[in-house]
Amino acid sequence: MSLSAKPVAVAAATALTLGLCVAPARAAHEHPLAGTVRTAPEYPFRDPSLPLDRRVDDLLGRLTTAEKVSWLHQYQPAVERLGIGLFKTGTEALHGVAWSTDVDNGGNVVAAEGTVFPQAVGLASTWNPDLVKKVGTAVGEEARGYHAENPRLWGLQLWTPVVNPLRDPRWGRNEEGYSEDPLLTGAISTAYGSGIQGDDPDHLRAAPVLKHFLGNNNEVRRDTTSSSLRPRVLHEYEYPAFKTALEAGAATGVMTAYNLVNGRPATVTDLNSTVRAWTDRPVFNVSDAGGPNNLAGSQGYFATKAEGAAAMLKAGVESFTVDNTDGAPTVAAVNEALARGLLTQADLDTAVRRILGVRFRLGEFDPDGGPYGKITKDVVDSPAHRKLARRTAAEAAVLLKNSGRTLPLRPSQKVAVVGPLADTLYTDWYSGRLPYRVTPLDGIGERAATVTSEGVDRIALKSGGRYLTAGTGAGADLRLSGTSAGATEQFDVFDWGQGIVTLRSVANGKYVSRANWSTLVNNQEQPTGWFVQEQFKLEAQADGTTLLRYAGYETAYDWFGQNKYVKAAPDGTLGLTVAEDATRFEKEVVRSGVGEAVAAAKSADVAVVVVGSMPFINGREDHDRTDLGLAEGQRALVEAVRAANPNTVVILENSYPATIDRLQEKVPAILWTTHAGAETGHALADLLYGDANPAGRLTQTWPRAGTPLPDILDYDIVKTGSTYLYSKRSPLYAFGHGLSYTTFGYQGLKAVAKGDGHEVSVKVTNTGSRAGDEVVQLYTHQHASRVEQPVRQLRGFQRVSLAPGESKVVRFTLRTADLALWDVTRGRFAVEPSTHDVLVGSASDAIRQRATMRVDGERIPARDLTRTTRAADFDDYSGVELVDETKVRGDAVGASAGEWISFEDADFRAGVTGVRLGVAATAASSVEIRLGSPTGRLAGTVPVPATGGTYSWATATAPVSAVRGAQDVYLVFRGALRIKDVTFTR
Q1: Domain 742-855 adopts which CATH fold?
Q2: What one GO molecular function would you report for this record (predicted)?
Q3: Tens digit of pLDDT for each residue in 299-356?
Q4: Residue-wise over 911-922: b if at least 16 C-beta within 10 A, else e?
């Protein structure tokens, strides 16, 4: 993950985007206070026998204002006079310790070489919180191990897990999250965070920080787009994903997102009334990288950095992740805010107190470093962690299809292991480096005789009698120079879909990259980096020639304009130019990938085809997917192998739902896995040969090809009918789907009232001949409601292990409060009286037992619109978006001409004669009051004057006529304006 190839200006801008802290050079072993730390006096803050609050107060009282201000930056400098070392926020650890927000002496991001577990979405696919807690424990131990070796480089505040609900499968960071369901997300994040933290009541092994608060599920224009979260979506879907772990004490803070939420940057969205209200433990919140500068920069929300700094601190963000290791701009902004009266000394003390609440729990100020202070680097990549990684990779895999008992394989069978991912393992942006690699071919090769082929074409590119030639060894600049197609002139072409390919040089096995922003060179172990410079397109021309197009930036950046095509100068050196001036190559196919794979398949008893994604190409941070299909060339490879050998198994290795309808129809067995780390090959072999019985389950709905998806910026899952909760479409694979080599029977479902809810029990029996795990899933559906209810909603799950013939009664506790909905009429949760379906099964679409239960509650009353009603608490809408009422708090409705909001079941029995609206507008407009529908009877029109701006609120009034009885009221907007509240008057 080198940054050294970038121009300095680009590297600096990129570092802000990533949270990479480009530090001054320092020897890797050097402690931040090496040679300067004096023996500290025995201050009370160093006495672990004292209460935490007293220790914090003591240290806080000893810090100067300047020292306190300096600690608001992500690199909290040392205070030598107190013997306090530097504290660095942020080590990435989504599925293992990944990298430090720092660079080494060569300017490269420092990546850990330790245990890499399956990607986060794979961890959740285990549906096994106990196992995930063990993974979290290993990650926390390895973080401590790295910290023991170099405390400056490896901080103990871990920026993990990502808990944003996976509501849209196109999100570029899908691999980082857990599930489209908030309950499952909360259970897995709680397990992972608990493991990282450890079980000591007063100390932390490491400090997990939840990402990214809030409404962060798109990469396109991610720092300027606003996620419009209506109250039900906010309270029932988005908040619970964060709240669960914080309530359980399994997280120590949140990282704010880049985007805006209801028109207000998440960086200054109030965390004190939400995040801090969900826990009684110390909370230390951080911004995302560059977020503070965006406030006065790309977002233009504040005029100065000082105003933005003040707003962040008052909103409850204590750490400014910005400006790499340079804290001076943050210090200047905060000092200016103090001088202007935007902040007080009390505000500053509050922020530092919160920081210290976590630093103390990490044992930093204990003489012995606390109970976790003795962990050493020996824990990294330990045999126990390798064993855990293998088990986790096996439990995370999902058997999507297995017809005709294709799986498990028999050891006596000869296996053709083919496909572009058959003999490689890829890491992602948030992976550490793999200390060793067991590929699918390696794992299968330990069990059976194999033949292999990557199934990719090997080509040579020729022009004017000369071949494109690469270097050997470490690689060299490509030149048009070779006179024959030898190894240095040959390249393997890997297809990643939508025309994007990578070229691996046969000369040295390394990928061709655009090095130093200039020429092409074969020097990369895999496509990688923030700007993935290994992407190309081979564009066929009408005359039979081929243009080589550099495609490294075209998806998100267009820094080169039309100069994207490779041109060879007379001396053979390469550069970029426009298509009309590019070199026209003759593409010679040295070896057909499909032909070789087909030959291998024909020679074997069974063919295992390993296909999937490249994590740095097929969607990632800052790059959403535009297509969910398997790469065209990979699909063609599978179909050709299947035609050659009907006994074909597909291993699909990617990190998101894929539209593989044709493979589902044609291939007898499909096994899905994420990019699962060094033990991938062993885990897959364990599954393929039946040593492990597949029991992973999908945590997202996989749509069928051609299924229309809403705009990726539309966060209203209720109105768009998104996720398994609200979708009525038939998916390719449903939420919770996953098969087994054995079968399970369900009997005797009961839902019995108990305490403040119900106890749900069901008997589950392994009715097959193999031991296996079943993931028992409990769903409910509410019959009658004031609002649209989910089709079904996950209420609990258990992964149970059963021997053949063994039975177990699985019990769930379902609290009545768990069935509450967010009542927009009163701004609180409420349980309605209703009958609920109780549904238990192995997937959301594989319900095995049904029952009903009656739940008592309160009937949501008719709306009283004679009381001032927040406009954002509408029941339905068309076109509007939620916006910020002020830059501090409050939501309003932003509307344009023709859009509307409605309030259903309003009680006007006493009649009303007027209406009053709280409005803000830059130009005069009006609002129509209509009854029954947006085109229903016009009861009145409210003229809205220009108020002086979007934050200049005024009152607009008008008479209304004949408004009596129960009515559905529609406010139809006839111009651009904002509305914060509505009141009908008598």
Answers
A1: Immunoglobulin-like (2.60.40)
A2: hydrolase activity
A3: 999 999 999 999 999 999 999 999 999 999 999 999 999 999 999 999 999 999 999 9
A4: ebebbbbbbbbe
For residue 708, is the peptide bond before it cis, meaning its omega torsion is within 30 degrees of 0?
no
Q: At which residue do the structure tokens 């550069």 appear?
A: 575
Query: Which are the contacts of 143, defined by CB distance < 8 A and separation ≥ 6?
Result: 91, 93, 97, 154, 156, 158, 196, 205, 206
DSSP labels, 15-60: HHHHT---PPP--TT--TTTTTPPPPP--GGG-TTS-HHHHHHHHH
Give me the CATH code for the 869-985 domain, please: 2.60.120.260
Q: Within 13 A of 384's CA, how many CA atoms are on the CB side?
A: 10
C-alpha 925/C-alpha 923 separation (Å) is 6
Q: Is residue 499 within 8 Å of residue 554, measured between CB atoms? A: no
CATH architecture observed for domain 8-16+62-364? Alpha-Beta Barrel (3.20)
What is the predicted pLDDT for the residue at 862? 95
pLDDT at residue 970 tops 90: yes
- Helix extents (H) in 562-679: 593-602, 632-644, 661-666
Closest CA to 926 of 895, 950, 951: 895
Phi, psi at 348, each rounded to 5°? -65, -45
Strands (E) in 40-136, as ranges, are: 75-76, 87-88, 91-92, 99-103, 109-111
The string over 402-427, giving b where at least 16 C-beta atoms fall within 10 Å of a residue's C-beta and e elsewhere, is beeebbbbeeeeebbbbbbbbbbbbb
Give the mean pLDDT of 657-676. Answer: 97
Tell the CATH topology of 458-591: Trefoil (Acidic Fibroblast Growth Factor, subunit A) (2.80.10)
Specify the 3-state DSSP secondary structure of 610: strand
* Domain 384-454+592-698, CATH class in plain words: alpha beta
Instruction: Please give the Cα distance from 685 to 573 (Å, whole number).
Output: 46
The upper half-sphere exposure of residue 296, i.e. CA atoms within 13 Å in the direction of its Cβ, equals 14
Residues 653, 55: Cα–Cα separation, whole Å:
50
Q: How far is CA 343 from CA 63, 73, 195, 242, 311, in A?
A: 18, 16, 37, 28, 9
- Residues 844/779, Cβ–Cβ less than 8 Å: yes
Residue range(s) in the chain whose domain bears CATH number 2.60.40.10: 742-855
Cis peptide before 161 (omega within 30 of 0): yes
For 585, list phi and psi in degrees, rounded to 5.
-100, 150
811: β partners:
761
Query: How, if at all, do strands 846-855 and 881-884 pair?
Result: unpaired
For 740, list phi and psi in degrees, rounded to 5: -140, 165
d(CA 833, CA 453): 62
The stretch 262-278 carries a mean pLDDT of: 98
CA 647 – CA 672 distance, rounded (Å): 18
Residues 671 and 397 sit within 8 Å (Cβ to Cβ): yes
pLDDT for residue 720? 98
Which residues contact residue 107 at a Cβ distance below 8 angstroms, ignoring those fewer than 6 apart?
2, 3, 4, 11, 22
Contacts of 486 (CB under 8 A, 6+ apart): none
DSSP string, 719-742: HHT-HHHH--SPPSB-TT----SS
Q: What beta strand segments (E) does 831-924 contain?
A: 834-843, 846-855, 869-870, 876-878, 881-884, 891-895, 900-920
Write down the number of H helices and E strands in the chain: 20, 48
Burial class, 506, CB count within 10 angstroms (exposed 0-12 / middle 13-18 / buried 19+): buried
Cβ–Cβ under 8 Å, residues 311 and 888: yes
Q: Residue with structure tokens 């960071």?
A: 173
Taking a C-beta distance cutoff of 8 angstroms, is the pair 76, 87 a contact? Answer: yes
The model's pTM is: 0.94
